[in-house]
Amino acid sequence: MTPFIQSKLAKLQAQYHDIKLYAVVDGLQYERHLGDEISYQDGVSPLFRQPEDAKIAFAGPWVFELSKLSKDVIDELITLEKSKPSLSWVFSQLDMFSLTNNLVDLLNVQLPGERFALFRFYDPRVLIQLKEILTKEQLAHFMDNIYDWTFYHDDHYHSVV
Q: Which of 30, 35, 86, 149 could cysteine-pair with 160, CB 3.0–4.6 Å?
């Protein structure tokens, strides 16, 4: 991982117990950049996991638990991060199952008129705008059980909060 992310992880681990680092990855951008779909494996889980989403799960958001990944996979994620708006870093004490459940609950937002839309929070181009589009209460809900959510946008790292 990058020195910036390593430093942030070290600071949080010194302050809190059991902090884990996760990457939230846009599956479609991953496939476009690396030429292969993300597949389910230990330490990698899709957020589109309902049976009706099976055909599009590869293109949706995925969560990677960095402690369970090889150096090669981590290096691929870093190259992806620098080349496409596709990845963010989540620092949390939650286990993989709990974190993915929390994130799945954030995927759909209700619009006026009883309509729903996909909330592309896994896209850095959306993350950069969260402070302006969410209320303080909504942002607190979004960051529930997450100590930091960092992403690379316009050649700089940013934090959701």
A: 149
Intra-chain end-to-end CA distance of the chain, in Å: 21
22 class by beta-carbon count within 10 Å (0-12 exposed, 13-18 middle, 19+ buried): buried
Q: Are 116 and 110 in contact (CB under 8 A)?
A: yes
- Residue 64 burial (CB count, 10 A): 25
Spatial CB neighbours of 87, under 8 Å, sequence gap ≥ 6: 23, 24, 25, 26, 29, 77, 80, 81, 124, 151, 152
Q: Which two tokens stand for residue 59?
A: 């293109």
Helix H or strand E encompassing 101: helix 96-106
- Residue 79, classified by CB atoms within 10 Å of its CB into exposed (0-12), middle (13-18) or buried (19+), is exposed
- Encode pLDDT of 97-144 as tens digits: 999 999 999 988 888 888 888 899 999 999 999 999 899 999 999 999
